Amino acid sequence: MINSKKIFFLFIMILFFVLQYTLISCDNYTPEEKKYIEHLKKHREKIDIEMRDSSNSPFNHKEKIEFHPLKYFEPNFDFIFKGKLTKYTKQDTVTIYGTKGEERKTIRYGFLNLKNDKYKLKINVYESLSRDGKTKYYGIWFTDKTTGKESYGVGRYLDFELNPDSNYIYTVDFNYAYNPYCSYSPHYSCAIPTKEDYLDIAIKAGEKRFH
Question: Of 3, 96, 100, 125, which has the maximum CB count within 10 A?
Answer without folding.
Answer: 125
